[in-house]
Write a structure and sequence with these properties.
The structure holds two protein chains of two kinds.
Chain A (H helix, E strand, L loop, with lengths): L5 E5 L6 H15 L2 E7 L7 H7 L1 H14 L4 E6 L3 H8 L5 E5 L11 H9 L4 E4 L11 H13 L8
Parallel strand pairs in A: 1-2, 1-4, 2-3, 4-5
Chain B lengths: L5 E6 L4 H17 L1 E9 L10 H22 L8 E7 L2 H8 L5 E5 L13 H9 L4 E4 L5
Parallel strand pairs in B: 1-2, 1-4, 2-3, 4-5
The chains are: A alpha/beta, B alpha/beta.
């Protein structure tokens, strides 16, 4: 067992994005692995600029992560590919993959992106579910953004 | 994470998937400065003509002890990690979710290979992901 080369995290502009990113950033800081933030959306392609147009809390967390981990230690991939396929493709056997979990028991893990990724990933998959509380030492801005995404995104599960 | 110690619960079941999960948990604990609680569930099959609850539990304790000793003997750099062991009666998913109630991370292997689908998510892993209070790590079959 060796340290992962990349921490690949999926963001989708739904509830819990900053929560998921927070876990991934901490893991990246602890392991020294490069953080790769992935967002799949039809018709969109690019990096941080593209992410800012669809998920401002996530983009803000990426900026903070670059300050903490270093500019070259955080990469952003926005692609028009289907999110599940994109995540599985971007995460190799020596990486770890982080994504948000189901909001409602019995629903998300049996369908959509969560199930697709967990069934096909070549590396360990970390599911950060909505019941997990952000660390008390998380930046206030992240905690606040997370609360807003909760309120605004309704009951959609992240990446599902 | 509630305090500085990263509390990791890992499901061990005597399979290769459980071994990989324990290996990953030990490495994660060494990296983050945490502790590992290895949990194995057991159930008595009332239809068994030979086993008793005690024999099943004792066998589970033996398997768990052997798995931990084996991983600690082969793992490199994780020798200083504190590992607690616990065997608990009940369904695997219920036992793991309960054991991880105050944990920072729950780790388990995915048992999903079938001939029909390339890989499917094991039912225990699926149930745990849906119910756990903390982040869940699923180690797929054949993961590095």
């Amino acid at each position: 067992m060796s340290a992962p080369r990349h921490v690949v995290v999926g963001v989708a502009g739904h509830a819990g994005t900053v929560r998921t990113l927070s876990w991934a950033i901490n893991e990246s800081a602890a392991s020294g692995a490069q953080l790769v933030v992935v967002h799949g959306r039809l018709g969109l392609r690019g990096g941080l600029g593209a992410l800012q147009t669809v998920d401002r809390p996530a983009a803000g967390a990426v900026v903070a992560a670059r300050l903490r981990l270093g500019e070259t230690s955080v990469r952003v991939i926005v692609s028009g590919d289907e999110p599940g396929e994109l995540l599985v493709r971007e995460a190799g056997p020596e990486d770890i993959l982080v994504l948000g979990g189901p909001l409602r028991p019995g629903w998300s893990a049996r369908s959509g992106t969560v199930r697709h990724v967990m069934s096909r990933a070549r590396c360990p998959v970390i599911v950060v579910n909505e019941r997990w509380e952000l660390p008390v030492n998380a930046p206030a801005r992240a905690r606040s953004a997370d609360a807003r995404s909760y309120n605004g995104a309704g009951q959609l599960a992240e990446l599902a | 994470m509630g305090d500085n110690q990263h509390r990791i619960v890992v499901g061990v079941d005597g399979t290769d998937g459980g071994r990989r999960a324990l290996d990953w948990a030990l490495h994660e604990a060494a990296t983050r400065g945490g502790t590992v609680r290895a949990v194995m569930s057991w159930r008595w099959d009332t239809a068994s003509p030979t086993d008793s609850p005690d024999t099943v539990r004792v066998e589970a304790e033996r398997v768990l002890r052997d798995e931990i000793a084996s991983q600690q003997a082969t793992a490199s750099g994780e020798a200083g990690v504190t590992v607690a062991a616990e065997v608990v009666e009940g369904r695997a998913a219920d036992v793991l979710v309960r054991a991880a109630r105050d944990a920072d991370l729950l780790v388990l292997g995915s048992h999903g290979h079938t001939r029909v689908h390339r890989t499917v998510l094991g039912s225990t892993a699926q149930e745990v992901v849906e119910s756990a209070q903390c982040p869940v790590v699923v180690i797929p079959t054949g993961a590095a």
